Amino acid sequence: MSLDEVFGCILFANANSGDYSPENLEGVERTLGLGQGKLECHSVVTKDPRDLKSEVQKVQEQGNFPDLVGIIGGDGSVMEVITAIENTWSRQPAYYLVFPDSGGTMKTAHNYLSAGKSSQEIAKYVAKAVSLNEPLRYKTMPVIDVTVDGIQNKRCQTVGFGIVPNLLLLYEGMTVERCLDLERELQQGKPGEYHEIAKKFTKDLRKPNRLSALKIGASTFRNIFHGHNSWEQYFFSRGLDVEIVIDDEEVETFLPERYQQKLPTGIYAASFGQVNIGLPKKLTLLPQADQDPEKIPAVFTYGSARQTALQVLKTVVGWNMDHASYLRFTKMTLHSDKAIACNVNGDAVYGKYFAIRSAGERKFIVG
Question: pTM to 2 decimals?
């Protein structure tokens, strides 16, 4: 696609991400401005997801949709910006542009998209391509569509069940006992009521800062390895009692024989290969996920929480986990007789029926 007319660009910068600085933002914006008047660019600095959603909503109300969206921040910022846009705007941008060295703690999406280039190099490339009316080089990454109980629809990059949302709630300050209390109360509700029930338990939770996250992480791993209470062992090691259908076939069709009669303890699907689960290294829970862009990659874990925690360390060097099965799908549905939690881009949603499919691929400029 050639840029044969003026392109609108918005840079979304997360002021609270890793090594963000106003100077980096100004430098990127200044470099993009070298596009000889063909790239109209302005920046929006946000402090939290609520702030970001407000700014995204303003664009929708004004109808001034940009052709290019730049993202300055880490993996969390990338997911938050794309998710906010996908769930709000009536017109999607032609391209996204992720700046790799301009903020953020985890940068696995950057590693996939930036091809080793710096933010300034990518900005110069875009400015030059715009000024010369040249096609832009890009990679594609799918967006995941999740429908909950047929009444709630979300767009995202990561989806998790079982141990995944449970660890998320502990990470944000819930105790195991309170998580089980929430599950019991959810069973008294009906689809459409689950969100309000969960709010009573989670309304005071906050995303932890780095220090508190380390403390919570240490406490969680200690409970996984040394918890002696029966309800702790149940919480961390129980299987997901759900009916799973993948591409209109029973899930057993896609699994090795040794797992066909077992309940998975966790399910994780993502639109790109590396996954941020809190460790300060590049993780590869979904190896070579980008090799089949038309399908969504997923991993099913079958070990106990202790076994899974130990196996996650193998992913740091790019090895597959034991007690796990990897697959790819076009559509996956999960049905449960009781309400279960689903982690959608770091937010817990609750329901009995989940349909997960690709919402199409988005273009990311790679420089």
Answer: 0.80
CA nearest to 18, candidates 118, 103, 109: 103
143 bridge partner residues: none
* Both structure tokens of 194: 């689950």
Q: What are the tens digits of pLDDT across the range 243-296?
A: 999 999 988 888 888 888 889 988 989 886 544 333 333 444 455 555 566 788
SS3 302: coil
Tell me how far apart the 2 most distant CA atoms of the chain are, in Å. Answer: 67
Nearest one of 168, 342, 173, 349 to 269, comparing CA atoms? 342
Q: Quick: pLDDT tens for 236-251.
A: 778 899 999 999 998 8
Strand partners, 45: 13
pLDDT at 161: 95
Closest of 306, 347, 327, 61 to residue 207, by C-alpha: 347
Cβ atoms of 108 and 282 closer than 8 Å = yes
Please classify residue 309 by burial: count the beta carbons closer than 10 Å to its beta carbon, then call 0-12 exposed, 13-18 middle and 19+ buried. Answer: middle
The gap from C-alpha 187 to its chain's centroid, in whole angstroms, comes to 27
Is residue 198 within 8 A of residue 165, CB to CB? The reply is no
Q: What whole-number distance in Å separates Cα of residue 260 and Cα of residue 249? A: 13
Which two structure tokens, joined as six digits, stand for 226?
A: 């040394």
